[in-house]
Amino acid sequence: MRAMIALARNSESAMTITQVATSQDLPKKFLEQILLALKSAGLVKSKAGPKGGYELSGNPKLVSVGRILSAVEEPMSHDRSGIGSAENMAPSGVLVLMEDIRIYVRNKLETVSLQEMADEALSEQDIEALMWYI
Q1: Average pLDDT score over residue span 75-99
Q2: What is the pTM for the complete model shown?
């Protein structure tokens, strides 16, 4: 998210991996892999040459946070096979609640655009909170 926000905020020119990594205090090797995944998903494009680097492929108003996260993370499970048992028992209340939460989060992520994230006056601490850690 931080790399995409940086690219959205710097939409007038391409940014090199080094520029993005430095501006967002991200490891360059990690960022290279993230940018490759974002490029594969069609969210960013790269330009070669002296004024080259990475830039957004399209309008940040049309790119959802959910789409960005799906490009670089394991998608949130759509699989309900874990709910209930093999004996077709009714799903437990906790499992149903967890599935409802997953659906809510997926839907919410699709309603927030990259442009909204870039327009927010987020501090570095707020942007750090966007990082998902395992």
Answers
A1: 63
A2: 0.74
